[in-house]
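The methods section describes the discrete structure representation at length, but only in general terms. What matters is that the chain and its backbone geometry are given together, residue for residue. For illustration, here is how one protein appears when written out as sequence plus structure tokens:
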Amino acid sequence: MMTTSHLLDDIRNVNLSYLLLVQRLLNEDRSSAMFRLKLNEQMADTLASLPISQLAKLANSNQLLCHFALVDPSQLSSLTTQQREDDLKRTHAAILLAGSMRDDEEEVVLKKGRHHGR
């Protein structure tokens, strides 16, 4: 049985690995990384410019910084149970994630509209 302290260490390690991957993706192909990570320009700039000391500080949390992108169980099921070719699975996942990104952006626009309307 894993203790809470081991779980927290694992979360911190995942966070740091994730943040390092984010920076690497942003440095290698910024627009693709922003799409994959659902980051806006400002967040991409901020994350790309953080030194390792700040990444370590940010990673030192009891909460995961990354989240599971598939929120609908049917999406997960269709990607794991259907006998498709790997390339088709990746394309399908990209379409599903792009759709959820568009939904997230529309929600932000709606919230901003309500906020400015007050």
